[in-house]
Amino acid sequence: MKRDLQPALQPASSAAGHAAGRVAAARVDDAWPLGAHLVSERAGYSHHGIYVGGGRVVHYAGLCESLHRGPIEEVELECFAHGHSIHVEPHPHAAYAGRDAVLRARSRLGENRYRVLTNNCEHFCTWCVDGKGHSRQVRTCVMHPRAALRFLLSMCRALVDARQAGGCCEAAAMWVAMHAA
Known about the structure:
Strand order of the largest sheet: 4-3-2-1-5
Distance between the termini: 30 Å
Structural class: alpha+beta
Radius of gyration: 16 Å
Number of strands: 5
Strand content: 5-15%
Number of helices: 7
């Protein structure tokens, strides 16, 4: 998949980007706000991380690129984006912002307790910023059966595509993990 990290893209600080609420992945020198909750849209779900400065993101690597659960790790922004666009998730009443959110994110580096429904990358990021982990994606699937069905269908489609390509994708990994529990 083509990377979405080109110099001509808007930096996170642009007025147009803030007005739209979404911007494409910034270059390393286009700084996102320190402690920002970043979201990268994937096939059927969203991946979340905390921007810690210097073009680096702390995220839960659990199932984001393979069938193996992974720990909370600090990676380059490009690795986090994995070829997808990124936007900042607003937290107007954040309990922790800036350096405080970064310190909370880094305090959990190496943790390896990923669970799709109860401790995923979105739970981690909301804990860093709001002080309590929660996942809108999980809540949406639980509360709205049609959304859950659409999610499952997108996972099936990704699994079929991955098998036809002879490999694996993050969506296929999510599907396997949800049914292994």
